[in-house]
Amino acid sequence: MNVTIKQLSAFVAVAQCQSFAEACERIHLSQPALSIAIKNLEEALGGPLFIRSTRAVLLTPEGERLLPMAKRLLADWGQALGDISDLFSLSKGRLALAAMPSFAEAKLPSVFAAFRQLYPNINITLHDVLNESVIELVRAGRVELGVCFRPAVTEDLQFTALYNDAMVALLPERHALAKANAITWEDFKDYPFLALAPPSSVRSHMKSALAEHNIDLKVDFEVNQLATIKQMVAAGVGVSAVPQMCVSGLQAPGLVARPLSNPIIGRSIGLVARRRYALSSSAKAMQSLIEEQCKAGENGTAL
After folding, report:
1. pLDDT, tens only, 35-50
2. Cα dihedral 159, 135, 264, 197 in deg (nearest 10)
3. How many domains does the chain have?
4. Which of 173, 171, 140 is nearest to 157 (CA)?
5. According to the model, what pLDDT value does residue 198 have?
6. Are residues 79 and 9 in the same domain?
7. Which domain covers residue 145, as residue numbers?
8. In terms of pTM, does the model score above 0.70?
9. Rounded Cα distance, 260 and 165, in Å
10. Cβ neighbours around 119 below 10 Å, total
11. How many CA atoms lie within 13 A of 297 on its CB side?
12. Between the CA of residue 81 and those of 7, 73, 78, 89, 264, what are the distances in Å?
């Protein structure tokens, strides 16, 4: 059975107007085209839907049963098309994305504020989770976009770099190194060092990068949260190194951050999405705003 929207529209118009001529004007069809649409619909369904006379066009019992169903189908079809049109025009919809907490805190408030001004009826769900969880959420299709460090395996992912995030020294304000013009990783060997505990991706990347330069840095304290490192460093327990992206969220009295070199250890931060899956219009708009925000701040510093 092959029934079309055009045929149902023709049927409803004739039923409501009780006239082929008036129905033609309502739905902008010629009378031959309208007659063919009704004829094809009747053939598809197996019987007549109208009783035609010189005075009026009336519905058969079967036509009476079909009319409310046809109206509902047309209304649902119109609603469906309208909903899709709204998604394309960003008039309404939903968007789910994931980001590392440090990026979410430092960058996304201004991005979300701008997005809300442009598209007030788009509802956003943000998963501010660890780097590994961002990648898992994207791979599982639970979010369209993620912000994370460049994944090690990208066969199924599309990664768009935003900027390179270098690690910086985190020091007590009155620490001797805070007055130095340049700080190297070797300088840390004379002081208690705090680091994130495994399996932190930051810790893993720092360890491997230092090993490449034959630097064996003794870790005296391991913790699970950057906020804990902040409080311990501010209290004078020791020194640490953190991604520069995290510094804005770690500012506290008695705490300073300084550039760190020899080697400069950095990681590419970017947007990740599933390869071979198209982004929705809302996800594309969010991606554009995030890229603009990062480009605008690329020459700035959080120190």
Report:
1. 999 999 999 899 999 9
2. 180
3. 3
4. 140
5. 86
6. yes
7. 93-162+268-296
8. no
9. 12
10. 21
11. 20
12. 18, 12, 5, 12, 53
